[in-house]
From TrEMBL:
Name this protein carries in UniProt: PucR family transcriptional regulator
Pfam families: HTH_30, PucR-like_N
PANTHER family membership: CARBOHYDRATE DIACID REGULATOR, DNA-BINDING TRANSCRIPTIONAL ACTIVATOR ADER
Organism per entry: Actinomadura darangshiensis
Domain PucR C-terminal helix-turn-helix residues, every copy: 330-388
Domain PucR-like N-terminal: 15-176
Amino acid sequence: MTRTLTPGDVQRRARLPRRLALLMRPELPSLAQEIIEEVRRSIPEYGRPLKGPYVEALKIGVERALKDFVDRVANPLAPRERHHETYRRLGRFEAQEGRTLDTLQAALRIGAQVAWRRIMKVGPRRRVSPEVMAQLADALFAYIDELAALALEGYMDARPDGEAEEHRRRLLELLLRPLGSSRVLAEAAERARWTIPDEVTAVVAPPGARYVRAALDADVLADLTAAEPFLVVPGRLTRERRRDLLRVLPDGQLVAGLTVPVAGATDSLRWARHALALMEAGVLGDGPVTDCEDHLITLWLLSDQALIDQLARRHLGDMDDLSPRQRGRLLDTLRAWLVSRGSAADIARELDIHPQTVRYRMRQLEGSLGDRLADPDARFAIEAVLRAMRLRERAASTAEPARAEAVK
């Protein structure tokens, strides 16, 4: 790289015909793969396991660079800041890993060479004039210089003697301080060059989760090396943001807390961690990104299990003398009655038993629970306890096969 360009230098050159974007887009998937393979073959640092963070960073960088270049051919005036930030992040990644920029710059050169070979092959076939081919070459290599300049910005930002990362760590600490000063937070955000949003969403990952720091968006605050890795994302999680988070934490099993005002970031993080614990216990499913918003009742019911036990003793303790089988049948009938408040015939159909059996069990329940079934507050407490017990049973039934497998 003999010189560096500021973002926008490419745009100030003579514009390329926009029809070139239509010719280039179909080539991007195979071209990205060809560049990745050539870089991995030529540079030892990238010749690592396919799921390693170094290779993930390479893949993200190549795909976004190609898309950005073609997008700016199609529309030179469209905003590019997000794509620019990708290469700043790659520069920061190199600094955080304790390397120089030589490897990344070598990868950029190889990418440009492979891309130019493809242009030389496809251009004449698609009747692109020599004048436009020369103009395209100029734009391509100027673009590579631009990417190198952006990577250098990020690299300088994240050097051990730089202050940017320290400012972001300090900001994250303040953001999660329940009674922090808004003035102090605003000053810290200014130093960290972070715009305070109206709302944030905390996202947590399992302990020891693999991460690709270079894929992290600039407006996301994160501590990925913590014992319990977490991120604070501005606003709600859009579909695009979810996809980006899974590039940062490719193993998935992420949990998103509720979207809250900035002052509630601690609550969002606490709920997300609680949901992650329930997911690990088998109470919640383990999809790529689990939303607390979809499980509010479960989070509430299991937020204090000792208190649920106290409620159970207070309202169902009179049934402790029954055998486990008797107690289980009565509780199933009570649960169905509380949920449906239907007739004996309705409950019988739900439980697949005879209506007379339902009447008999309800008389037993009335004898054990007395006036509680007529008290709205007591009924509410009993239903909450029964729902919590059902959630615990689900977790236990999920955990049992896992324990059996572990014993093998």
